[in-house]
Every structure is written in C-alpha cells, then in structure tokens.
Amino acid sequence: MTLSASAPIGGIDVQVHPSRAEMGRAAAAVVAAKLRRRLADGGSARMIFAAAPSQAEMLDALVAEPGIDWGRVTAFHMDEYIGLAPDAPARFALWLRRNLFDRVPFGAVHLIDPGADPAGAAADYARALAQAPIDIVCLGIGVNGHLAFNDPPVADLTDPLDVKVVELDAVCRRQQVDDGCFPGFGDVPTHAITLTVPRLLRADRLVCVVPGAAKREAVYRALNDPIGAACPATALRRHPAVTLFLDPESDPHG
Description:
The chain is 29% helix and 20% strand. The protein starts with a strand and ends in an 8-residue tail after the last strand. The protein is an alpha/beta fold. The radius of gyration is 17 Å and the shape is globular. A hairpin with a 2-residue loop joins strand 1 (4-9) and strand 2 (12-16).
C-alpha cells in the first residue's frame, strides 16, 4: 500500500510507502520478480548493489523472498573506499557481506579490492563487469545527489570509463559520518573506486531506494533539475526502467 499512487515523474516510476520497512519490502518484491523471470528456464542473472544504511530494509526483505535460486546470480558492488584496512568495518565489501552476501548462497560475488594499485583494481573490475550484461542495479541517491561515488559537480554523465578512482567531496564524506559509518569527518577516506554513471545506466533495470528526510532535497532535484553533473542523480531520467522507492520523510511532495 502506498501513500500516494505510483506515478511517473520525469520518466521515473516513483512510489511512496508508509514506512521504511514497507518501502524495503516493495522494492525487494520488484527485484525478486525480475530475478525470478531472469532465472526461469535455467537462466542466470548479474546484479550490482549499493552498500549503505539506506539499503538495509530492502536487503533484509530480499533475503526473505522465496523462490530465488541465488546460485545462478552473480553479484557486484558499486564503490569502495581507498585506504581502509581489509578488515575495517566501514568497508563496503564487508557491509554487503554482513547484510547480504553471507546470508544467501550467491553463485559468485566480485568484491572491489583497491589494494596497492587502485587504478589497476578499477580496470580489473571493469573487465569483470563487461563479461556479460547487468540485469539489475540496486542503488540509492546521496545527500549531494551523487550516484555511487560520482559526486557533483565533477561527475561525468558521459564518462568513457566504467570504473575509476575518484576524490570524494566534503558533503559526501560528511554523509558517511551522519550515517554512523565513521566516528568523525577526518576518519572518512578522501578517495574511492566507483562505477561510473554510464556503467550504472547500462543495466536493464534500476531499483533506487531512498528513505529519510536528509535525502528529500536530493530526491526533488533528481526529479526536477536539469539533467547534469550538478545533481548526478538526474541522469536516472535517461534510463527507461527506473523505479524510485521513497518513504514519507524522503517524499519531496509529502
């Protein structure tokens, strides 16, 4: 049940649900339905996941969805910090292990490991992504309007690269503290590896989960601003199959 009927805005199907839990369940149901169709008759699927507290309710609900043969699903994630210890709790790979990858038996999970050569790791990850089409991306929108770690105003919406090293802006780094991922601003790494906007948009289906009052302005801008690097999430309007899941706090028209 939604607070407002599902409606297309700027080409994006927008759904507002009464709570974060219901939002998560609705988003997971869409992902699961797409997976079941893709896996029918012996098929396989390839997915990309965001790692952020905003995704937790959706991932919990997805793990509980029945009838998915996870052994035929290959998983990737969309960004990773540079400079954190391999066992640092804030690493996105570890967050996704705790919240998803260790909870269902994926056929394969490709983790970003920046190591001593982040640029080389980015190129290797791009090659792994390019081996076959991506079916589903599960993503969010940052407080600054970023997609993955493509921050304004330097995000390249026509980037020729699929994966690259980026410097994180101050608003993005502050969000990581506000989300409880780091104790202080100085603890947040300054650089990361990220999938680029064009790489994300080449997936067949995008499921975007964006709860919380802190994201309300970014959601409004994603739906209404001119498409461009000032708000990278506006690029979602270029994709033919995006559903944006909101709760009452993130609904800019609520």
